[in-house]
Design brief:
Elements (H helix, E strand, L loop, with lengths): L1 H5 L12 E2 L4 E2 L3 E3 L2 E3 L4 E7 L6 H14 L3 E2 L10 E8 L2 E9 L7 E7 L16
Antiparallel strand pairs: 1-5, 2-5, 3-4, 5-9, 6-7, 7-8, 8-9
Length: 132
């Protein structure tokens, strides 16, 4: 699953004026007594956004790439800060969330993350929290 996350076409997208800070980083899935614990499975990319981006500008760049990867628009819980929007799809039968976010005041970075959200039964079920 981690390799599939890391190969997602959304990680090839770099908004105009932004630049990557390193490569795609993969979170770890742990082997438990009952098999693979995927709750921590993730892949993420950090970028320096240059002059910054608002949600409309980031959606213009990321929504088409997400759609090409089979992602569907999702309802993201409000964070009350920066930009935060999500897309959802099942990856190997596990509900997974693609999030694009900026956090002003933290470090000003632009973050693209794909994370497993196994406690969410499907993309049709609304998120109860901002887990990913």
């Amino acid at each position: 699953m981690l390799k599939e996350y890391a190969r997602d076409p959304v990680f090839a997208v770099v908004p105009p004026g932004a630049h990557r800070v390193g490569g795609v980083e993969q979170g770890r899935a742990c082997q438990g007594d009952d098999g693979m614990d995927i709750s921590q499975a993730s892949a993420s990319l950090t970028m320096e956004p240059g002059d910054g981006f608002d949600e409309a500008a980031l959606r213009k760049v990321y929504d088409p790439a997400a759609a090409r990867g089979g992602w569907k628009h999702d309802v993201a819980p409000s964070t009350g800060r920066g930009v935060y929007f999500t897309h959802c799809r099942a990856v190997r039968g596990v509900t997974s969330v693609l999030s694009v976010s900026t956090w002003p005041g933290r470090d000003g970075g632009l973050y693209v993350t794909i994370a497993a959200w196994p406690e969410r039964s499907s993309c049709a079920s609304p998120p109860a929290s901002s887990h990913p």
